[in-house]
Amino acid sequence: MDYKAITEYAIHVCKQAGALVLEGYYSNDVIIDYKSRTNLVTNIDYESETLIVESIKNKYPDHDIVAEEGSLKKSNSNYVWYVDPLDATNNFAHKIPHFCVTIALYSREIKSTVAGVVYEPLRDECFYAWKDGGAYLNTKRIYVSQIQDIGISVIATGFPYKKDDPAVNNLKQFNNVLPNVQGIRRMGSAAIDLSYVACGRFDGYWEPMLYPWDMAAGALIVEEAGGMVTKYNGEAFDPEYPEICATNGLIHQQLLDCINA
Questions:
Q1: Cβ count within 10 A of residue 124
Q2: Taking the mean position of all CA atoms in its chain, how far away is CA 197?
């Protein structure tokens, strides 16, 4: 399997979907619905997902697909595509200019993401990586930061939709980390947060209660940029496990210690 060629295909599809999303962003006709009080969905999410999923089905008919808005194709294939047609829908719906399209291809055989793309249409920034091929922003190779002291680091995080449940709402971990870092940013897109770790804008990122389509592409991009990605307990990252800690590697244990304090 040519992972670079697959990544180039994924970039093309993400940019097609990104153009659709961008048109929706500037439109006054977006239809907003609610999965729950805190979780929005729009017609643009569905239109973007349809575009991506139909393209993948045509290009790779033997591959499985799992997408945020419900598209599902299961055949026990070695390969599964994780699709988020519009990450940070809440931002998008509120006209906050920070959202993306992200897709990833995961190999069940080697238990690893092998291609990943995160595309920010407003900035025309495309982060991507393929297994053992490095990480890139547009055409430029990117690398994680070299900060070694968590005390001067900038860390990103997010909060799950179940904000009223203290067992999972990330407030305990947030309060553990906050006094020990230079700053924390909450941007609203897991995929972009991970991409920013990969290019050194952030030094680390953690978040609970995520889904594979939130994490798979960004996690690969961080790893291929020289960073480290694990669960909170330090075990190997698994996109099917709903938590992630990603850093430049140099502050990884320090961030884990704060999260688990």
A1: 11
A2: 11
Cα separations (Å) of 92 from 22, 44, 53, 183?
10, 10, 21, 25
57 to 26, 66, 89, 219: CA distances (angstroms)? 29, 12, 24, 24
Q: Where are the beta strands (DSSP E) in 1-111?
A: 32-36, 39-42, 64-67, 72-73, 79-87, 100-107
- What residues does 205 pair with on adjacent strands? 156, 246
Q: Using CA atoms, how far apart are residues 76 and 140, in angstroms rounded to an integer?
A: 36
Task: Mention the CATH class of domain 150-259.
Answer: alpha beta
What DSSP state is assigned to residue 236? B
DSSP secondary structure code for residue 237 in this structure: P
Q: Is 214 exposed, middle or buried (0-12, 13-18, 19+ CB in 10 A)?
A: buried
Within its chain, how far is the Cα of 25 from the centroid?
A: 20
Over the stretch 181-206, which tens digit does the pLDDT of each residue have? 999 999 999 999 999 999 999 999 99
Where are the chain's structural domains?
3-141, 150-259
pLDDT tens, position by position, 74-114: 888 999 999 999 999 999 999 999 999 999 999 999 999 99
Lookup result for tokens 């997010």: 158
Q: Which residues of the chain have pLDDT under 70?
A: none
- φ/ψ of 217, rounded to 5, equals -65, -50
CA dihedral for 119, 123, 124, 128, sign (positive or negative): negative
Token digits of residue 22: 């961008």
Q: What is the pTM of this model?
A: 0.96
Structure tokens, 201:
């804008």
Domain 3-141 coded CATH 1.20.1540.10: no
